[in-house]
Design goal:
- The longest helix is centred in the last third of the chain and has 8 residues.
- The chain has about 90 residues and is mostly beta strands.
- A five-stranded mixed barrel has the order 1-2-3-5-4.
- It has a single domain, classed as OB fold (Dihydrolipoamide Acetyltransferase, E2P) (Beta Barrel), CATH 2.40.50.
Length: about 90
């Protein structure tokens, strides 16, 4: 799992049938302390996230496919599954 910040949406007029009607977000990956990394990815939205929301991502194909219920033929990398309210780092 990863933490990311929504920086935009992705529109695709031609896509697999399983993804018709699915909202896709452009997400900038964050370090645990909230610092932006250089990594950006496209994630399907399961929590109705919007611009600047900090989200919890499942960034692993099999788990992401299970959330989207695409079956074994679905090609999915990441899914936004929740909002992040805070992160507590212990020393």
């Amino acid at each position: 799992m990863k933490i990311g910040k929504v920086i935009g949406t992705v529109v695709s007029t031609l896509k697999l049938e399983q993804y018709i009607g699915e909202k896709m977000l452009l997400v900038k990956i964050l370090d645990p302390d909230g610092t932006e990394t250089s990594e950006t990815l496209v994630a399907f939205d399961r929590c109705q996230a919007g611009k600047d929301d900090v989200v919890l991502l499942i960034d692993e194909g099999n788990s992401a496919r299970q959330v989207l219920e695409t079956g074994p033929t679905g090609v999915v990398r990441a899914v936004c599954v929740g909002y992040v309210d805070s992160v507590n780092l212990y020393k």
